[in-house]
Amino acid sequence: MKKLALLFAICHLSFTLATAQTQLSQYQPGVTTDGAVYFLPKTVVKLQAMVEKTTYTPGDFARYAQRYLRMSDVSQEPAVSYRLLGVRITPVAVPDTTKGYAVKFNPKTVAPHVALSADGLLLAINAEPRPDNTSASLSPVPSVAALPQPDPRQYMSEEILSAGSTAKMAELTAREIYDLRENRSLLIKGQADFMPTDGTQLRLMLSQLDQQDRALSSLFTGVTRCDTTESVVTIACDGPIQRQLAFRLSRKLGLVDNDDLAGVPYYINIEDMHTVPLPDKEAAAKVKKKAYEAGIYVNVPGTMRVTLQLGDGQTVSTAELPAPQFGNVELLSGDLFNKHFTTHLWLNPLTGAVDRLETEQPR
Q1: 3-state SS assignment for residue 71
Q2: pTM of the full predicted structure?
Q3: What is the mean predicted confidence (pLDDT) over 26-44?
């Protein structure tokens, strides 16, 4: 019964295709031995924003940095800040519900094998769909976190650890830092009491001295950690867009809601490049006439330019992407699929355009 209901829907829709194409959006795409209901894609824009979070933690001896290490710009307050490293603009295919079509297989011909994606996009006929290489560019970018810092207390001498006050500990630690730097200088000059026997041992000793210096100095200068994360914003468009708010970024809070004025606004512009000419009235009449014919509809995609800008008009990122919604739809005649030869058709999974068309004579 279910099969008969789908067949009735396909037959009915194939006759009303020209005047009520949008009605197909209420039908679930699928394939049976009698026919298929499918969608063509349109492009949505994904903005993959790489945001760096910087966290500063003051050292235990920050207040003594000027006195013992002559550092005047050391902050004693913790701080967190964010900055935008870059934005990658990526096209993604989604079903265009205004381009839903039904095809009924002619019982006098060989029923074609129709391959659909999980969301009903037409991928291939009489062929295995090709891998969607666009999905690789959408793989999430892993977060990059700072490497753990060594505990500076493991480099403190017994004298430092047993000091009776923080001020005394800071003074002894500063003295230890100066000793480390002096020993490093002597090694480089070849004047140390115990010189390494080869270059490898020298590099190892210098590396250990540098590590101890950095660890102990962090007690005065503090520790700064940088973590990079990716946030994805999706922008849907059915036509040109002028200065649509994409997201907001606050230096103190990171990405915030679009209505949060604490964040600096980033705007997106989408421009139709008019790479596909609009059909004239005579051609449109022919397309309308073809709508009553059997066949497969495919996209002839146009191109759109996507630009991301700051509020002052400064361009952050730009890209030109294929855009079926700025193109046309063409009909491949049903005569391509008959008993006299076998037609193999591959569609571009991103645009719905013909990637490859092959025919062969049956043996």
Answers
A1: coil
A2: 0.76
A3: 79
